[in-house]
Write a structure and sequence with these properties.
Blueprint lengths: L10 E5 L25 H13 L4 E5 L9 H8 L5 E6 L4 H11 L3 E5 L5 H8 L4 H11 L7 E7 L8 H8 L4 E7 L10 H6 L4 H8 L4 E5 L4 E8 L2 E8 L5 H5 L3 E4 L4 E3 L9 E2 L1 H6 L2 H13 L8
Parallel strand pairs: 1-2, 1-10, 2-3, 3-4, 4-5, 5-6, 6-9
Antiparallel strand pairs: 7-8, 8-9, 10-11, 11-12
Helix pairs in contact: 1-2, 1-11, 2-3, 3-5
Length: 306
């Protein structure tokens, strides 16, 4: 499907729960403000069947923390019937005991939020002392065929902006990829004191990575730069995610989002153009759901543009 700005919609990002066992102060909660989780695996199957029939073959599961759902493996197993690229974003705190069951259910790759390797800094960011659990989960994930394993590092001034080298060392001898992510808010949030305090533009990080004389490739999603840095005869990968005031980010967005309370969300930064589809999911009305998905695609427009 193609939106009004010529952008294909070829993936969907599905929030399966609002629940999370961390309390990260920066969290945008996928831009969702719903009240409760109300969907069961059968509801998700109706969604999967319709969007895959429209040509979408990539899905990413998110939350909250998606592993708060004990039936996540069931949902992934259902999704395997409809998608050929199944990924998950998680905080990693439950991975050690469940990563193999997730893989067996059909998961292909995984993103793990890890903003620091310093235990005290981790507690400041997340509100919890769970860093050892996350590191154990990452080590167990590295034993699985999941590939790549992306480490999501949201950069924050005064907290972890001096830890980039340490994180690069952490990933460089493995199949892990480091994603350095700019702190993001809608435009109305740019004047808030916490954002002014913690936001770090990634320009200097990009200059630093270029100093390694890396091979540079593009991730088609958001036209992101991927830096492949030489390491003892091989290469490891650092990816920059720059969502703020970035017309390339929006111009190359190919995602539709779906909220845990049953709405299609055309843009992470906006909540004024959501399309509710809960009735269609609960009734199994696939034709009406298809119409509403097509409407959501028509409502897509770049948030940052020239």
């Amino acid at each position: 499907m193609i939106d009004s700005y010529g952008r294909p919609v070829n993936s969907i990002r599905v929030s399966v729960t609002k629940e999370c066992n961390l309390n990260c102060f920066y969290c945008h909660r996928e831009g969702i403000k719903g009240e409760k989780d109300i969907l069961i695996p059968e509801d998700f199957e109706t969604l999967f069947k319709v969007v895959s029939s429209l040509g979408i073959k990539k899905i990413k599961f998110t939350g909250g923390e998606p592993l708060e759902r004990g039936d996540l493996e069931d949902i992934i197993k259902i999704s395997k019937k409809y998608f050929n690229d199944i990924s998950l974003t998680t905080n990693g705190t439950y991975l050690k005991s469940r990563v193999w069951s997730l893989y067996d259910a059909g998961l292909n790759r995984i993103n793990i939020s890890l903003h620091t390797l310093d235990r005290e800094t981790y507690k400041k960011i997340t509100g919890m002392d769970f860093l050892p659990r996350v590191l154990d989960g990452i080590q167990e994930s590295l034993k699985t065929p999941l590939n790549p394993i992306k480490i999501n590092m949201v950069l924050m001034r005064g907290l972890n902006d001096n830890q980039i080298n340490e994180m690069m060392e952490f990933v460089k001898n493995s199949k892990m990829v480091l994603q350095i992510i700019e702190l993001e808010v809608p435009v109305e949030g740019e004047k808030t004191p916490w954002y002014i305090k913690y936001h770090v533009p990634l320009d200097d990080v990009e200059k630093y990575l270029r100093s390694f004389n890396p091979e540079i490739r593009k991730n088609p999603l958001h036209n992101r730069d991927k830096f492949l840095i030489k390491n003892n005869g091989s290469k490891y990968e650092i990816e920059l995610v720059k969502p703020m005031h970035n017309t390339e980010f929006c111009k190359n967005c190919t995602r539709m989002r779906f909220t845990y309370d049953g709405k299609l969300k055309p843009c992470i930064f906006r909540n004024d153009n959501l399309v509710p589809v809960l009735d269609e999911l609960k009734s199994g009305n696939e034709e009406k759901l298809k119409e509403k998905f097509e409407l959501a695609v028509k409502l897509r427009e770049p948030y940052w543009r020239d």
